[in-house]
Amino acid sequence: MKQYSNLASVYDLLNDEYDYNRYAQFLDSEIRTNEKTKSSLVLDLACGTGKITFALRALGYDMTGVDLSEEMLSVAKDVCYDKCINDILWLCQDMRELELYGTVDACVCCLDSINYLTKIGDVKKCFSLVHNYLIPDGVFIFDVNTPYRFENVYANNDYVLEDESSLLAWRNEYNEKSKLCRFYLSIFEETEDGTYERSDEVQTEKCYSMKQIKAALNECGFEIIKVYGDLDKNDATDTNEKWYFVARCIK
User: Fold this and answer.
1) Cα(239)–Cα(251) distance, rounded to whole angstroms?
2) pLDDT tens figures, 118-149
3) What pLDDT shows up at residue 1?
4) Is the pLDDT of residue 8 over 60?
5) pLDDT per position as a tens digit, 69-118
6) 76 in the Ramachandran plot: left (φ > 0), alpha (ψ -120 to 50) or beta?
């Protein structure tokens, strides 16, 4: 089943407590701190419904948003229409087959999108393509879900999220040997007559170690500047749920 095809319509509602502006400020701070030439063109890779894209645009960046899901991009484009925003380039592409019209000054990839690449070879393909489209010394910032999160938060647990008109129930299935976690999602959305319509979706993420991610970055021509354990810029530890990588294109 195509990931994020059914979830797109309720994705933002069910993540409305996430502080996208804070994340964008973190990204802006790291870009400004580590850039060697002033950055203006930024790629938001696996941008989803564009929450980070819009937040970085508000901070003055010229944005390109790339995502595999037509449904997620459709939500982002609806926001553009409603707010009369016409200066963001949206591209429907697989991050393993990225093809831009030119180079960018920085690239961000947020909300564990790298974990959706379930083979280390695919991670390297993605990193290599990002490297190809970054200017020399361009900054690449992304996050991944950590082994701690897969083993202790996802594991084989069940979760339910809801708002006034929709409900998302999902069951996790984590395989410690393959390091794959499958999410079996059921989405219930209220219709005009008060009944609920159900749709189902299966998603898969891969757990990668710190060593694997660092090796992939080095192999693909990146210098690792820093790895944080949170948006407050504390050092990464084994008990973080996310790691935030900041790297520079050097080759």
Assistant:
1) 32
2) 999 999 999 999 999 999 999 999 999 999 99
3) 40
4) yes
5) 999 999 999 999 999 999 999 999 999 999 999 999 999 999 999 999 99
6) alpha
Domain shared by 18 and 102, yes or no: yes
Same domain, 27 and 134: yes
For residue 160, give the CATH number of its domain.
2.20.25.110
* pTM (global) more than 0.90: yes
Query: For residues 170 and 154, is the Cβ–Cβ distance under 8 A?
Result: no
Q: Is 216 found in the same domain as 166?
A: no
Mean pLDDT value across the chain: 93
By the 8 A CB rule, do 189 and 9 touch? yes
Question: Which of 106, 115, 130, 88 is closest to 183 using CA atoms?
Answer: 115
Distance from C-alpha of 172 to C-alpha of 203, rounded to nearest angstrom: 10
Q: What angle do CA 50, 52, 56 make, to 5 degrees?
A: 115
pLDDT of residue 10: 61
State how far Cα 186 lies from the chain centre.
21
| 3 belongs to a structural domain | no
Burial category of 180 from C-beta neighbours within 10 Å (exposed 0-12, middle 13-18, buried 19 and up): middle
CA-wise closest residue to 171 among 206, 200, 207: 200
Lay out the sheet containing 242-249: strands in order across: 89-92, 62-67, 41-45, 104-109, 134-145, 242-249, 222-228
- Listing DSSP states for 76-111 in one string gives HHHHHHHTT----EEEE--GGG---SS-EEEEEE-T
